[in-house]
Amino acid sequence: MKIVLLGPVGSGKGTQAGIISKEYNLPHISTGEIFRTNIKNETELGKIAKSYIDKGELVPEELTNKLVEDRINQEDCKNGFILDGYPRNIEQAKFLDSLTNIDLALMIDLSEDKIIERLSSRRMCSKCGQPTSLEWMVDGKCEKCGGDVYTRDDDKPEVIKVRLSKQAVSQNVIDFYKQKGVFSKIDATDVVEDTYALVKSILDKVNND
What we know:
The chain is an alpha/beta fold. It is built from 9 helices and 8 strands.
């Protein structure tokens, strides 16, 4: 299966992508992972991407497209893949469509209120660096090492709202995949396993068609 995962930041789609990857033996691909791998391996595309990243600039869309094309043409993607965080806009969706046919564009949705509640409860340990949550902490300390915790700037409610507005899934992308007849949507739950059960029911249907 060739799967595109859509959804707002904080919806848990990265977690679900990891589970799908393991259960269905499909590579989990994100643009961040593609950038990091190419930069680490010092490929020509990676060197160009690094020149933008080092200056704090966005990697141009044409270069991002080339990196995605190169990645999905690799041997481990011959039986399918999961694209997480790409395409972000209609131009990228059309470019991807020119390369291959997508079997499923699955949107894992979650309300803004729930996302803010979920992300703003995250904490980082100042001692061991482990991410944690208000519900896991022991006496207000990291449950792993007992260190003091803090809230990352990008997990503050006012910052989360800005991130959500900037990273919202394009309606044009949703409409594009609806027209292709491959779009499905589920509402994420607070329990990873329950969300995955909804995801699996859709994947199995697509896999059997």
